[in-house]
From TrEMBL:
Source organism (scientific name): Microbacterium gallinarum
Keywords from the named record: Repeat
InterPro entries xref list: BglG_antiterminators, PRD, PRD_sf, PTrfase/Anion_transptr, PTS_EIIA_type-2_dom, WH-like_DNA-bd_sf
Keyword Iron set for record: no
Protein name: PRD domain-containing protein
Source domain of life: Bacteria
PANTHER family: CRYPTIC BETA-GLUCOSIDE BGL OPERON ANTITERMINATOR, TRANSCRIPTIONAL REGULATOR MANR
Length: 671
């Protein structure tokens, strides 16, 4: 007999970090603020009109709450407009970005009280008197006690402890641990991991080093690293600049790191000297040897590769043989598992250098944020899935824990390799119809090749005024004369190609590619769905693992998978959330071990928590070894369908049963 389903694990948006899981809070306003920020983030990212009902589903609230959130967000930038309202709903306004960056300066808000409290605890080794500090913040001692409890919640994994003796509270832990806490707060202040000196000063205090110093500092750092022969990861360097700001602030308070015990390597010494010189020049701070070695290590672990002129032997000389061997084996396995062309020597060496840097970051607990994580996951789910597979195998081989942001960097490596190795047969073919007049048709072909060569391949030119239209079998027909019978693949263009012509051809090519992708998807999906594996009514009482087990039971009953597959699906979910869009989660196991490919569907109306967001459709996918080639089709195109809000709402609202779900899904696919 199977064990009872797990009790629901409450997911609550933690008030100090929008999207972070945390303990339940009884205080309404902090959660409301986080949802306001989430609403603004959704509208900024999509840039389109969205109805209150659609946004309410995404946030797990009522449409009435959405209207109140819009009012509150607009109040941040009054008399400006952060969110526009209209007959079609809401969309980001001209002042949306400014509103997103405003986290408030009122010391009475929970977020700012938290940062003020943490700064005070970090600045004074003897701690604070809680009654005096409550008076300073104009709050009750009970409110400050609640804030201290939230500080304690921040300390997990920091090697810090919060001690309380009568009215005095103090932090205990190493200087490095205290800096990690500051780093975490600074990241929470910054949108999607982007470097923001204003947010950083809110974390460190207004007396810390100003923005004017860091622009020139970063520019000089990147330029001089380039002259030393390094490719610089701009996302990583921005993160290092944040650590340098923290170091400068702490050193100015005589809180520098201790002198290192281990000898530094030549590369470290070179970068340390550069950092020391730039810190004195731009920040007016003299960093000690402990800080310089630490920061040099951070810089080097965010330099992803040697420069383009460096030969492969030079790159390999910097590699740990164990890391290179692990990456080579894992890339080979991933290439075979997903049928992707990534097993190239240059890719392996660059990824191995990146993974070696990852090891250093893991030892320092100095993870690198990636502002592209969410967009990579939703736009390129297949690439992200390959990256998750590589990350999981590297974790097994090398013992490196890999959060989502680090997996996203691996996805960028994978995507770059696949972009380089795209086959020419992925281009659409085209025939140009241009009646002969001198060399007009040749000029037109040259213009098409120059402007559209990355999207289409011209394989024929018809110069007759009465071509045999029926015999032209290319994907597209670009014609300067009216066709005998109009069609979707026929695009009228001018003899001298205009910008409008280029846009029309690109749009037609996009429609054809999409229709072909979705046609393949429809064929595959009709084979894989089953009425007995459809559940409507997923609710707030169920967490991710509960839903996975519920849908897994349906596939187990069909004989498609076993309990081990469900367990591995849960393990895959813990690696990285499978919520690939704001509406869809696609849980699955790493490894195609199902007896046949099948998909179980769960519908939630309203949405349910999943990972750091909310979803309305959960598709538990079980793939078999024989359907390996179908994996990419189903995975990417299924996610594409559910990336469109209108399509999701149509399917969710009308899919009362399995038959209705399939009918609506097919209708959406067919357009």
């Amino acid at each position: 007999m199977r064990a009872p389903r797990l009790a629901r694990v409450q997911r609550v948006v933690d008030w100090h970090h929008p999207g972070r899981r945390g303990p339940p809070s009884k205080q309404g306003p902090p959660v409301t603020r986080a949802r306001q920020d989430r609403l603004l983030g959704l509208l900024l990212r999509d840039g389109e009109w969205a109805t209150a009902a659609t946004l309410a589903d995404a946030l797990g609230v009522t449409p009435r709450s959405i209207r109140s959130y819009v009012t509150a967000v607009n109040a941040r930038v009054a008399p400006g407009t952060a969110i526009e309202s209209g007959p079609l709903g809401y969309r980001a306004g001209a002042d949306a970005a400014a509103a997103q960056r405003m986290t408030g300066t009122d010391a009475g808000t929970p977020r700012d009280r938290l940062h003020t409290l943490v700064r005070a605890l970090l600045d004074d080794p003897e701690g604070i008197d809680t009654f005096e500090f409550a008076d300073r913040l104009h709050v009750s001692p009970a409110t400050l006690d609640a804030d201290l409890a939230r500080v304690r919640g921040l300390l997990g994994g920091t090697e810090l402890t919060l001690e309380r003796s009568a009215s005095r509270a103090r932090l205990r832990g190493t200087e490095m641990a205290q800096r990690r806490l500051l780093s975490r707060l600074a990241h929470d202040e910054m949108d999607a991991g982007s470097f923001d000196i204003v947010a950083l000063r809110r974390t460190l205090g207004e007396d810390s080093v100003g923005a004017a110093a860091f622009g020139p500092f970063k520019a000089d750092l990147v330029a001089e690293l380039g002259t030393q022969g390094y490719f610089v990861n701009e996302f990583g360097i921005a993160d290092v600049v944040m650590h340098i700001a923290i170091a400068a602030d702490r050193v100015s308070q005589d809180r520098g790191l201790e002198r290192p015990t281990a000898d530094s390597k030549p590369a470290q010494e070179e970068v340390a000297a550069l950092l020391g010189r730039l810190a004195q020049k731009h920040l007016g701070v003299e960093l000690g040897s402990g800080d310089l070695q630490h920061l040099a290590t951070l810089v080097l672990t965010r330099v992803v590769a040697p420069g383009v002129e460096a030969p492969a032997d030079h790159a390999r000389s910097r590699l740990d043989p164990e890391v290179e061997a692990a990456v080579r084996d894992v890339v080979g396995t991933a290439s075979a598992e997903f049928l992707v062309d990534i097993a190239h020597e240059d890719f392996i060496l660059r990824l191995a250098l990146h993974v070696q840097n990852l090891q250093h970051r893991a030892r320092e607990q100095a993870w690198s944020r990636n502002p592209l994580t969410r967009s990579l996951k939703s736009t390129y789910p297949m690439i992200f899935e390959v990256a998750v597979f590589i990350a999981s195998r590297l974790q097994e081989r090398l013992g490196i824990p890999l959060p989502d942001d680090e997996i996203a960097y691996i996805a960028m490596h994978v995507g770059g390799r696949l972009e380089r190795s795209r086959r020419a047969d992925q281009l659409l073919t085209a025939t140009i119809v241009c009646p002969g007049y001198y060399d007009l048709h040749e000029l037109l072909r040259s213009s098409v090749d120059r402007s559209l060569g990355q999207a289409i391949e011209v394989v024929g030119v018809e110069t007759r005024v009465d071509p045999d239209w029926a015999s032209i079998d290319t994907d597209l027909v670009l014609t300067t004369i009216d066709p005998a019978v109009p069609g979707e693949r026929i695009v009228k263009i001018q003899p001298f190609l205009t910008d409008a012509d280029i846009e029309r051809v690109q749009a037609a090519a996009g429609r054809i590619r999409r229709s072909r992708r979705l046609a393949r998807l429809r064929t595959e999906l009709e084979r894989y769905f089953a009425p007995s594996a459809f559940v409507r009514g997923l609710g707030e009482t169920e967490g991710e693992e509960d839903v996975i087990r519920l849908l897994g039971d349906a596939l187990i009953a069909q004989g498609v998978i076993d309990d081990d597959y469900v367990t591995r699906t849960i393990e895959r979910e813990r690696l990285s959330s499978t919520a690939f869009t704001d509406a869809l989660a696609v849980p699955h196991a790493l490894g195609m071990t199902a007896t046949r490919t099948s998909i179980a569907i769960g519908i939630a109306d309203p949405s349910i928590p999943w990972g750091e967001g909310r979803v309305q459709v959960v598709a538990l996918v079980a793939f078999s070894e024989t359907d390996r080639e179908a994996f990419q089709t189903v995975f990417e195109q299924f996610v594409e369908v559910f990336s469109e809000r209108d399509s999701v709402q149509r399917i969710v609202r009308r899919a009362a049963d399995f038959s209705g779900f399939l009918d609506e899904l097919v209708a959406v696919i067919d357009g």
